Amino acid sequence: MAYQVLARKYRPQTFDDVIGQETITRTLKNSVMRGRVANAYIFCGSRGVGKTTVARLVAKMVNCEKPSPAGPCNKCTSCEEITRGGSIDVLEIDGASNNGVDEVRTLRENVKFLPSRDKFKVYIIDEVHMLSTGAFNALLKTLEEPPAHVRFLFATTEPNKVLATIISRCQKFDFRKIPSAMILDRLLSIAGKEKIDLEKDAALLIARAADGSLRDALVMMDQMMSFSGNKITAGEVVELMGIVPSDRISGLSLAIVEKDPARAIGALDEMITAGKDPVFVANSLIGHYRDLMVFKTVGATSDGKMFTKEESEQLKQLAEKLSLEEILYALQNLLRSLELMKSTTFTRGALEVTLIRLTRRDSILSLPEVLVGLGNETVLPEPEDAETPSPHAPAEKSFDQGSDAAAFHWKAMLNHIKEKKMSVFTFLNVARLVEFTENKVVIGFTKDHLFNKEVLETGMNRSVIEEAVRKITAAPSVVEFITLEFPGEVVAKKAATAAKKDMSKKKIKPVIEKAMDVFGGHIVRDFTTEEQK
């Protein structure tokens, strides 16, 4: 007997064999058993999740001589012919190659004829979204008022391309991606039947790489059986499937965590030398930081994704060394790098720039720091005959929000908090200093950072901030958190006040110079000089 690939050999023959689509299979079974079969169904979902398989099961069950709540009997002549693909009353049509008006007109003529032997003539049209607009329109009337002996079953991976008028005439079912845990169990079960020694970690790698498609998983397992014989290991799966090993990705991530650009670039070079495409590495890193984000926030098993013991330990260690803000910053930069890679042939360079940026994240100024830096330099007068106070000295009676003294105390407070509790520092670092006196410290958050405000104003986080304020001011100052209406509200108000007092060009010039210094700019044309001429 000719070899039969696993995806065909183990195609579900009853509704109970279908995994991951329990709600859909239950509804369809009940519809057939109660005689409530619709004229047309449309099954939507990604590849390899069971759309065509379920369509065939419906075709078998409506024509089965002895259907049961479990599905078709698979013993009668009709069931056997449909299973073999030889039934003349169940027609499978590829929408991609039969997408013209003429083909649909032929179909319309044929539906008038009664089934040759079965109770129903069933048309299964796969990838129905490939039909042309004219073909869809030619099908409309037949769908709305089909002969009593005809049933239509459509399958599509892109329901957004199917005309709304077609969908409105069908019962629509959305197939979900199959959970990795279910694919893992099915792979191990099939390996047992095929007498294959499949390591659980190897099956886990295949299940994850399949991305919710059982068919893809079975195709990969077929390929592994040809490569490895009767024993399949995790290392062999990594080698054949071109998967980036998790320890390589974790090693690169550790270099980022420890702010070592040379090691990060070296780790990337090793992966590229081993044949990994930079875009593939970037995608793997994005997946890794996504896992870190989930691990950091709600736990490793929150979304049902499975990890090996080694992977769980690696994620745990890395998550402890990174704040959530740092993880999100890495994700944002990697996603931006991936977009840039699509528009350049030098994909490696784009990824290297991103990795260096991530390893030097402490040197990147945040917007609040830029605004405070510009504000301190430009809109406020230099202190007259005053020495900068020590961060441990008693606070003065009142500090202006943008004054050097207030800014110095604010920075000293942040440094103290950073040493005490990094997570509080991370959430507080986006805040604006609104008021700083010996009695009260007011901290503002923009509407984009209300979550940070909520995290800091309660419990132990507030206590950490209050303790830092008392240490810096040597006074029982009250800490108050407020919401700012606009991102630059505090600095902008100070700038406006200063502008009214002094509109001289001597005051404007330092603003430009400071902005150039912060943003790395240069003068293209000096209008001030031209006006003086």
Give structural notes.
This protein has 533 residues and is of the alpha/beta class. The protein folds into 4 domains: 6-174, 3-Layer(aba) Sandwich (Rossmann fold), CATH 3.40.50; 180-241, Helicase, Ruva Protein, domain 3 (Orthogonal Bundle), CATH 1.10.8; 246-363, Up-down Bundle (Zinc Finger, Delta Prime, domain 3); 368-494, no CATH class. The protein has 25 helices and 11 strands. The chain has helices spanning 6-9, 22-33, 51-63, 77-84, 101-110, 133-144, 164-167, 180-193, 200-209, 214-228, 234-241, 246-257, 261-273, 278-297, 309-321, 324-341, 347-359, 367-378, 404-420, 422-428, 450-456, 459-473, 489-501, 505-519, 527-532, and strands spanning 40-44, 90-94, 121-126, 150-156, 171-174, 197-198, 231-232, 398-399, 432-437, 440-445, 478-483. The protein has a 5-stranded parallel sheet with strand order 2-3-4-1-5, covered by helices on one side. Helix 5 (101-110) links the parallel strand 2 and strand 3 (121-126). The model is unreliable at 376-401 and 487-508 (pLDDT under 50).
